[in-house]
């Protein structure tokens, strides 16, 4: 895509990765993604972030279209992850900027990653202001949102924030602004990105939003490093959504995620789903053989209850459930009710193991159900009543 002037003298450059499906090696990006970076043409021409290394040609072309033969004076590195700093070394080599600005932890990451010796790096702790001519850039360190090096860059004259990964979505589009696309789809992709990337850092999100409010920053444009940008009233909408995401208030919804060998655990899970649905709880029944862990996590994100199921396998649980629980625990979901279900042939450890995972994630545990061999009507009734009991716990929690 060609450069887009988003404010007079401020350009979106970026690259649209239409074919990306594997995001960061662990999450699905069903709609592709974008790597947004920005160029401010002022007395000091300033580049904000870069793009993934494979789009180096695109970045050079976009810079040339805006600048012609004019040079880049400053580079701001808000984040050192390779999809945003993948071309940093090439930018330094080709354009030889006077200064590279980054956070205190960004300097450490830059040194470790690029092994440079003579780059003109300057550290910009929170509160640092940089004049680039008619405009000022100020920096706000957002350590662990979502890497230690993360920071935001704010331009008060344009009321514009370059937000790094915050407010991002994985969506390859020809549109650049949130007001040009379907709002429901946008919110869904924002939530999916948050659930799989930002969720563990929700306390940092809340702290950052509070700091921005205390500082009284006026924001008319938000430019994340992935997906659509926000302008006008959409900025308040995006901030409100992030506040909602970070608070992790559960909805009247349950997710049953399971794996099964000979369908006994699956049938028990279906009976629990019936009990939940008959009490008016929205239910997602997701088998790990047919769903990627990041898609499951997108559903778990706003659910009040998570029921996990697996038969006993080699004195443990099935591998796909171990993968799912490892992934879920790392993302640290909060405010959930948990329960377990599983069938077994002889040793029967599955529910005990699954329940331990739920306890380790600080979930309110409703005692699980296990059954030897094939469940009968009595077991199905027990599972159905289990669904109703979990529904009651959800209603008490909401």
UniProtKB/TrEMBL annotation:
Q: Which UniProt keywords apply?
A: Oxidoreductase
The entry assigns this protein to a family as follows: In the N-terminal section; belongs to the zinc metallo-hydrolase group 3 family.
Q: Does the keyword Oxidoreductase apply?
A: yes
Question: What is this protein's name?
Answer: Rubredoxin-oxygen oxidoreductase
Gene behind the chain: roo
| Residues in Flavodoxin-like domain copies | 254-398
Q: Name one GO molecular function term.
A: FMN binding
Q: Which InterPro entries match?
A: Flavodoxin/NO_synth, Flavoprotein-like_sf, Metallo-B-lactamas, ODP_dom, RibonucZ/Hydroxyglut_hydro, Rubredoxin-O_OxRdtase
Native organism: Pseudodesulfovibrio hydrargyri
EC number(s) on file:
1.-.-.-
Q: Which domain of life is it from?
A: Bacteria
Judged by the first EC level, this protein's enzyme class is oxidoreductase
- Pfam families reported in the protein's UniProt record: Flavodoxin_1, ODP
Keyword Oxidoreductase listed? The answer is: yes
């Amino acid at each position: 895509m060609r450069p887009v002037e988003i404010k007079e003298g401020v350009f979106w450059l970026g690259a649209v990765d239409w074919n990306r499906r594997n995001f960061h090696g662990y999450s699905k990006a069903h709609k592709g993604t974008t790597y947004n970076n920005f160029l401010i043409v002022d007395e000091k021409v300033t580049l904000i972030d870069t793009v993934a290394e494979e789009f180096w040609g695109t970045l050079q072309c976009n810079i040339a279209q805006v600048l012609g033969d004019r040079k880049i004076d400053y580079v701001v590195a808000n984040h050192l992850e390779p999809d945003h700093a993948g071309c940093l070394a090439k930018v330094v080599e080709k354009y030889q900027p006077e200064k590279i600005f980054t956070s205190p932890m960004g300097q450490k990451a830059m040194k470790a990653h690029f092994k440079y010796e003579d780059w003109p790096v300057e550290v910009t702790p929170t509160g640092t202001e940089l004049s680039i001519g008619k405009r000022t850039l100020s920096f706000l360190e957002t350590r662990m949102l979502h890497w230690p090096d993360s920071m935001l860059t704010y331009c008060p004259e344009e009321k514009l924030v370059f937000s790094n990964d915050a407010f991002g979505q994985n969506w390859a589009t020809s549109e650049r602004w949130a007001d040009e696309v379907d709002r429901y789809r946008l919110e869904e992709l924002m939530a999916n990105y948050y659930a799989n990337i930002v969720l563990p850092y929700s306390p940092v999100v809340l702290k950052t939003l509070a700091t921005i409010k205390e500082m009284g920053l006026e924001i008319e444009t938000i430019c994340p490093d992935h997906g659509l940008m926000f302008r006008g009233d959409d900025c308040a909408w995006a901030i409100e959504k992030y506040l909602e995401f970070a608070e992790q208030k559960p909805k009247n919804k349950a997710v049953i995620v399971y794996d099964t060998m000979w369908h006994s655990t699956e049938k028990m899970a279906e009976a629990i789903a019936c009990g939940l649905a008959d009490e008016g709880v929205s239910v997602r029944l997701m088998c790990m053989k047919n769903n990627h862990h990041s898609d499951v996590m997108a559903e778990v994100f706003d659910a009040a209850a998570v029921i996990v199921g697996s038969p006993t396998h080699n004195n443990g649980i099935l591998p796909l459930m171990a993968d799912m629980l490892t992934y879920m625990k790392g993302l640290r979901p909060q405010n959930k009710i948990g329960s377990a279900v599983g069938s077994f042939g002889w040793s029967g450890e599955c529910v005990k193991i699954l329940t331990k995972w739920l306890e380790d994630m600080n979930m309110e545990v409703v005692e699980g159900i296990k059954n030897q061999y094939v469940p009968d009507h009595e077991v199905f009734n027990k599972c159905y009543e289990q669904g109703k009991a979990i529904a009651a716990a959800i209603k008490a929690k909401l």
